[in-house]
Amino acid sequence: MTPAIRTRAWRGWTLHEAEVLGSTNDHARDLPPWHAIRAKRQTGARGRHGRRWSSDEGGLWISVVLPLDPPDRGWPAFPLAAGLAVVSTLRGHGLTQVRLRWPNDVLIGPKKICGILMEKFAPDRVVVGLGLNVTNNPAADPGLAAIATSLAAELPVAPPIEDVYEEILVALRVLHGRVAEEGFAVLTDDINRHWGGTRTVELQVDNDTIRGPFLGIDTRGDLLVEIDGHPVSHSAPHVRLMREV
């Protein structure tokens, strides 16, 4: 049965809203640019490499469709820009410890609060899926208690989901505009200010395991790890897993 989806216009966006969807990314695949779809709950949400993402009610589960125009602006690295949009929004609510984790996570300290999944279903546009824990309680799952948090757990009072939703949409539009005008490299310095300091990471790259200090990203969005005293870049498609150690 097709889910009931409400549609409204808001500040240049067309917003679609449903109670329950399997995956907002799957429902966004055929939408045109500047459309966004939100569900109060997802039953089949996924993260990078198909990993499961818990999506119970109280979180912000959205997918936005953005144009890849003009081409050759470094769009494959846009999940980092989406992460920057989330970080700037949450810092505006007083979460000074919020930080990025390459390539598509937002954390508070060691705990994940937001995941991002970008998928390209058509040559001229991309779907950016975003899952942010707001008033839901991921810690209720014993498997997530030590690694996930929410706005409600980090703030005296969590902001309304609708406010956070609109603020993130505004931030995404601004950052998309900067990349469209000047290319992804224009965001490199801003993104590199939000890693929460230098830390040792371990990567699974193709069939190798690599370990060293994480140095941020280069102008293409590839991660930089120090190996034998020199920065070495690795692109997201070749990194199966990165963990902080």
Structure overview:
With 245 residues, this protein is of the alpha+beta class. It has two domains: 5-192, BirA Bifunctional Protein, domain 2 (2-Layer Sandwich), CATH 3.30.930.10; 200-244, SH3 type barrels. The chain contains five helices and 13 strands. An eight-stranded mixed β-sheet has the order 1-2-3-4-8-7-6-5. A five-stranded antiparallel β-sheet has the order 12-11-10-9-13. β6 and β7 (111-122) form a beta hairpin. It is globular and about 55 Å long.
Summarize the structure.
The protein has 5 helices and 13 strands.
Distinctive features:
245 residues, alpha+beta, BirA Bifunctional Protein, domain 2, SH3 type barrels, 2 domains, eight-stranded mixed β-sheet, 13 strands, 37% strand
Rg calc: 17 Å
Task: Compute the number of structural domains.
Answer: 2
From the structure provided, what is the oligomeric state, counting identical versus distinct chains?
Answer: single chain
> Which regions have little confidence, pLDDT < 50, spanning 5+ residues?
none
| Corresponding CATH superfamily of the largest domain | Bira Bifunctional Protein, Domain 2
What is the C-level CATH assignment of the largest domain?
Alpha Beta
Largest sheet: 8 strands, mixed
Could you spell the SSE succession in H and E letters? Answer: EEHEEHEEEEHHHEEEEE
Distance between the termini: 46 Å
Beta strand count:
13
Q: Describe the strand arrangement of the main beta sheet, using strand numbers.
A: 1-2-3-4-8-7-6-5
Structural class: alpha+beta
* Discrete helix count: 5
Helix content: 10-25%
* Residue-averaged pLDDT: 93
CATH level-two architecture of the largest domain: 2-Layer Sandwich
Reported by name, the CATH topology of the largest domain is BirA Bifunctional Protein, domain 2
Described by the principal axes of the CA atoms, the overall outline is: globular
**Share in β-strands:** 35-45%
